[in-house]
Amino acid sequence: MRKRVALSGVFAVLLALTACGNQGPHGGAAGPPQPGGTLRYGLSQAPTCSDPAQAGTNQTIYVARQVVDSLTDQDPASGEIRPWLAERWEVSPDARTFTFHLRAGVTFSDGSALTADSVRATFDSIVHTLGGVKAPLGATYLANYTGTRVLDPRTARVEFGTPNAQFLQATSTPQLGILAASTTARPAEERCLGEVVGSGPFTYAEYRQGDKATLARRAGYRWGSAVFAHQGEAYLDRIEFTVVPESGVRTGSLVSGQLDTISDALPQDAPQIEATGGRVATASNPGITFGLQPNVTRGPLRDRAVRTALLAAINRQELVDTVLGPQFRTASSPLAHTTPGYADLSADLGFDPDKAKQILDRAGWVPGPDGIRVRDGARLSFAVLFSQVFAGNQAVLELVQQQVRATGIDLRLDLVSGPEYTARQNAKDFDTVYYNSTRADGDILRTGFGLGGRNLNARGPIPELDGVLDAQLAETDGPARARLIGTAQRLLLTEGLWVPTVELSQAIGVSPVVQGLTFEASARLQFFDTWLSGR
Fold it and tell me: Looking at residue 30, what is its pLDDT?
């Protein structure tokens, strides 16, 4: 008997496009879905890799998700785990063993069959070939992985040395999507160049790193997720992804009909898009909010008082009102409100510059001649490492820079390219780093902050925090696990290990010819049910 898991917590993803399959170009009935056509998509940033196991940014996942299927899928409305490549599964009471029974008749795009060996090779390659540097998300999902036993060609038993309650949800992510042996046998770098073979509804027709990607419909596909709106092949013939970094150019290309869909539509673009019959679809990303993660071994950030003063020195509502617009929300916790296990800690994140000054005063940081505080001859100055992986990052941080300066903190902006950002993040070569991390499970906190995860704080043991991060992995009761995750969120703020700013929302500009475009549970785009009308 399959063990179904309904995830607890708030999980109301804002699906602005859920009903678009019934909307015509002018709001009338579009009729039944029509197969065929090429959807032209404008990405705000270049994909970093064609391999879903190594995908981290939204723009990369928009592309790579379409070529790979996962063992399970997650219903975006309820959070329930639903069948995909696995038609059923069992989870041991101690959450150390997960047995998956695979669907019959599934093949990869190179013609090879999906078997339990495919599951084993996929997970083995993440742990032993890619590792935590190349696959930081997948590697933490497979924490304490001891191997996959092939019980028969269609039954795989995934085993862990310690309890891993988050793993079932992790099997719904693209990072743990199942790949063919022709891909898992390749080294990490080759898997980023377009030679990726999955069982998904699309295949790579062309991939030029840093430039464009073209996907083609997979003929004969008939094993879609239970969450999908239809079964059989995808409707679209092709999807052409091009990189258009300038937001004004993306919007202009959308309204002129050169593109059909674009990433990162800005609030000021909405009237222009809507005037031509288009719309801006939004979804709030679950997972870790945008924020600053201090390296606690660097300069003034060694002082917890400095880190906690930052919490009160930032006016989050001003960030939303001035820079981002109404589709965004202020961060009220290290986790976004759509994440299972989210705890509302807005009372701890109120804008209170006087409180920030008092914290710094008590810690011996006194205002210097230029208003920047000093202690023992050292200025209260540090840098934030960031990239333009999200179009609003620089404007948000420029405003944060102004806000914290009013309390005597000199925040220097260190904008770098995507590759340099990744390399320095992995090396922990920063004072503080700005990012978000999307996942529809509260275990993302262990990924970001655990000693066995990425630990970008470069911290040592904190027994209470480490204890709850480990305990939630072993807890199979939903409400009890949520309480542990809530405690972890509180401790992250108490220790000043995360300084939340805003929740990430996807804002997708959509032309009136695009129907049926949907967000999956992690607020990333799914193109399987998408079709084109009037063209």
Answer: 67
